[in-house]
Specification:
The protein has about 240 residues and is an alpha/beta fold. Among the domains are: about 40 residues, no CATH class; about 120 residues, Rossmann fold. The chain is about 30% helix and about 20% strand. It is built from eight helices and nine strands. The strands form two sheets. Strands 3, 4, 5, 6, 7, 8 and 9 form a seven-stranded mixed sheet that branches. The chain has a two-stranded parallel sheet with strand order 1-2. Helix 8 links the parallel strand 6 and strand 7. Helix 6 crosses helix 7. The longest helix is centred in the middle third of the chain and has 19 residues. The chain starts with 6 loop residues before the first helix and ends with a strand. The relative contact order is 0.14. One of its GO terms (biological process) is rRNA methylation. One of its GO terms (cellular component) is mitochondrial large ribosomal subunit. Belongs to the class I-like SAM-binding methyltransferase superfamily. RsmB/NOP family.
Length: about 240
């Protein structure tokens, strides 16, 4: 069964949603490097503790797992490990669901300029991340915002600045996992028919809608969300 935590890793390039890291016996197959960066020391500490608790010893041995605490826009230790094959950019955003849960003062601080300010920062982060990738590397941009400014709006500006060196990709390579349903629309009817043939609308754990560039998972039709995903390939620099 696919879990919400596995969804981004599968989108960015895992071979199977049922893949488990502790299912690998050969150390050679487990080679590679995972670099985790967060501007918050508190969040990074929690992530570090979680990964070390659940990953097998060989996955954290030596230099395979690295942590960096830095503001992406200002640079940091994460840069010295570049170029990367894949980058997951979970960008700071309006976090609408968390905002409503907090309520009170958090809602009072929100203004119409909040999404715009986030969008400007998100674009900077995308431009930096794209330069840290190898040619043909994969960049997955995600937010938990409902604002178009922070989602497809940011990707619009990013693609224009990339001048043909970046292309958007389908959310998954090949057949979609059975737990994910792509909601139908005239713009992607062929893709929807192919991917969801014989699939009951109520059987999927995740229901995802195709937007202009990316995909949205909204809580009114899915068990999770809001979440926005845009998967891209860097063709050059």
């Amino acid at each position: 069964m696919m879990s919400q935590a596995k969804l981004p890793s599968y989108i960015i390039g895992s071979n199977s949603m049922s893949y488990e890291i502790d299912g690998i016996d050969n150390d050679d197959e487990a080679g590679g490097l995972l670099v985790c960066n967060d501007a918050s020391r508190d969040r990074l500490s929690r992530l570090q503790a979680t990964l070390k608790k659940f990953l097998p010893p060989y996955a954290t041995a030596g230099q395979r797992l690295q942590f960096s605490c830095a503001d992406v826009c200002k640079g940091g230790a994460f840069e010295r490990f570049a170029p990367y094959d894949r980058i997951l950019l979970d960008a700071p955003c309006s976090s609408d669901r968390h905002l409503l849960r907090k309520g009170g003062s958090a809602v009072a601080k929100w203004s119409q300029g909040t999404p715009k300010a986030h969008a400007e920062r998100q674009l900077k982060m995308l431009l930096i991340a794209s330069k840290l990738l190898k040619k043909n590397g994969i960049l997955l941009y995600t937010t938990c915002s409902l604002s178009e400014l922070e989602n497809d709006g940011v990707i619009d500006k990013f693609l224009k600045k990339a001048k043909g060196n970046v292309k958007t990709l389908p959310l998954f390579d090949g057949e979609w996992p059975p737990e994910v349903r792509l909601e139908g629309s005239p713009a992607n009817q062929d893709e929807t028919t192919h991917e969801n043939a014989g699939r009951e609308s109520g059987s999927a754990l995740f229901s995802i809608e195709k937007l202009k560039h990316g995909y949205a998972m909204l809580p009114d039709v899915s068990r999770f969300g809001p979440m926005y995903f845009c998967r891209m390939q860097i063709l050059g620099h």
